[in-house]
Design goal:
Immunoglobulin-like; globular; binds CU-O-CU linkage; mainly beta; binds copper (II) ion; single chain; eight-stranded mixed sheet
């Protein structure tokens, strides 16, 4: 029952209509009654899994199609949303290290978009950033070989200036990467290996997406939480321990997660892969774009709510319930908690590593410059390990994401943290120092992005571009974007 797909027929048949799509257009004509108390009783949707076998040519072919379709974010109140291969969110893609991916993205939306593989290590021309626009009615076919450690990555649009609106309307999905190492972690998708895509929404009385993702200082902070697109969700646990793959796919909301009974869980992975060993915790912070994997033990009959708490640190105020876990009276046994995990090698900057400094001083620029699609801000030798210092000089929270790379936090105002990441929280008036490992891909023309992942800020220009190039050629690279983009 948890495998109910949300690839609805309605979405696939009658989807061209987009008239009256007020979502995210700032229509505040309807009243906003406070959401009623939740009983957390709706079965959690599990996004369908897409895990194609290799074809005779060795390629694994994936197809994503963007749709405008009908969803019931509130039961009985159909509304227009956007999704991949369905009306809201997208399938969970799954591939293993060494797999050759042939992807096709078709865009049936009335406007251009892109699809960015957030957390994927790949050439810039395949990255799906703002230069890889897919026209309305067009398609895009990137291909690459998966070559990175096991991780929970995700995909979402990245058209400059409209990312916040496209994601808010529902375009996002998970991309799981497996490695052949035996981790003894739960891997039965939807049974003991559970994706949890966390999003907050503002909904109208008629159940439509409301609010302007570009309004106010942070964009939308919704008062209703969707998990995998499910409002008021419950998950029935059937095993003694589950692995939760958490993704913050919200536009601006930061989560400070804890179970209502403050039970201890174990974090086993960050954005970029496994930790060296499970880390016991009772709370977990997740800013937009970040992922974490945790193991949670359950006793028969347990009934516990996962919440987000007001930790006083960030822009989201108040506590909110996210999802209820109800454990069956009989639970299948789970593998023991592993003592160690096959984590990727620590990222150690070499002596004399290049240091770059990025100052966040507003909500629409980095180092005082707003994003310019035609300007290449940084040129990095392929394969380098550099130190990036990100200073949040403002009085409010931001975060910082770098495309393609894996980094490790050297210190966040003195606090060391482990694990490979690609997105990091940058609290007000703090500096984080990152050891950043860049990939082997060189392309003097097509850039990767770095930016604040609060989508309102990203769209407003809190973003910059870098290219990775053949070492030794840095000074001969054009600082103007010389590409032609890509649109069919
Ligand atoms: Cu998930 Cu450039 O972002
Ligand atoms: Cu990204
Ligand atoms: Cu920001």
């Amino acid at each position: 029952m948890n495998r109910r797909t949300f690839l609805t027929l309605a979405a696939l048949s009658g989807t061209t209509a987009t008239a009256g799509l007020a979502a995210g257009c700032g229509s505040d004509a309807e009243p906003h009654p406070a959401p009623p108390p939740l009983d957390l009783s709706t079965p959690l949707r599990i996004p369908p899994l897409l895990n194609p076998a290799p074809e005779p040519d060795g390629l694994r072919r994936f197809e994503l199609i963007t749709f405008a379709g009908q969803s019931e974010l509130l039961p009985g109140k159909p509304t227009t949303t956007w999704g991949f291969n369905g009306a809201y969110l997208g399938p969970t893609l799954r591939a293993g290290r060494g797999d050759r991916i042939a992807m096709t993205v078709r865009n049936t939306l009335p406007e251009a978009t892109t699809v960015h593989w957030h957390g994927m290590r790949l050439p810039a021309a395949m990255d799906g950033g703002p230069h890889q626009l897919i026209a309305s009615g067009g398609h895009w076919s990137p291909s690459w070989t998966v070559d990175q450690p096991a991780a929970t990555t995700w995909y979402h649009p990245h058209p400059h200036g409209t990312t916040s609106r496209h994601v808010y309307r529902g375009l996002a999905g998970l991309f799981l990467i497996d490695d052949d190492q035996d981790t003894r972690l739960p891997t039965a998708y939807g049974t003991d290996d559970i994706p949890l895509i966390l999003q907050d929404k503002k909904l109208t009385e008629r159940g439509g997406l409301d609010g302007d993702p570009m309004s106010g200082p942070f964009g939308i902070l919704g008062d209703r939480i969707l998990v995998n697109g499910t409002y008021n969700p419950r998950f029935t646990v059937t095993t003694a321990r589950v692995r939760l793959r958490l993704l913050n796919a919200s536009n601006a909301r930061m989560y400070h997660l804890a179970f209502a009974d403050r039970r201890t869980f174990h974090q086993v992975a960050t954005d970029g892969g496994l930790l060296p060993a499970p880390v016991a915790a009772t709370t977990l912070d997740l800013t937009p774009g970040e992922r974490a994997e945790i193991l949670v033990g359950f006793a028969p009959g347990d009934n516990v709510v996962l919440r987000t708490l007001d930790n006083g640190l960030d822009i989201a105020k108040g506590d909110l319930d996210l999802i209820r876990f109800v454990a069956a009276e009989r639970l299948s046994p789970a593998p023991e908690l592993p003592a160690a995990l096959p984590a990727p090698e620590p990222i150690v900057p070499p002596a004399g590593a290049k240091v770059r400094h990025f100052t966040l001083s507003g909500r629409d620029s980095i180092n005082g410059r707003p994003m310019d699609m035609q300007r290449i801000d940084e040129v990095v030798p392929a394969g380098a390990v550099e130190i990036w210092e990100v200073e949040n000089a403002t009085g409010t929270s931001h975060n910082f994401h770098i495309h393609e790379v894996a980094f490790q936090v050297l210190d966040a105002d003195g606090r060391p943290t482990g694990g490979h990441k690609d997105t990091v929280f940058t609290p007000a008036r703090t500096t984080v120092r990152l050891a950043v490992r860049f990939g082997p891909f060189s392309d003097p023309v097509e850039p990767y992005m770095y930016h604040c992942h609060l989508l309102r800020h990203e769209d407003a220009g809190m973003m910059g571009q870098f290219v990775t190039v053949e070492p030794g050629t840095e000074s001969s690279v054009s600082r103007r974007y010389a590409g032609v983009g890509h649109a069919h």
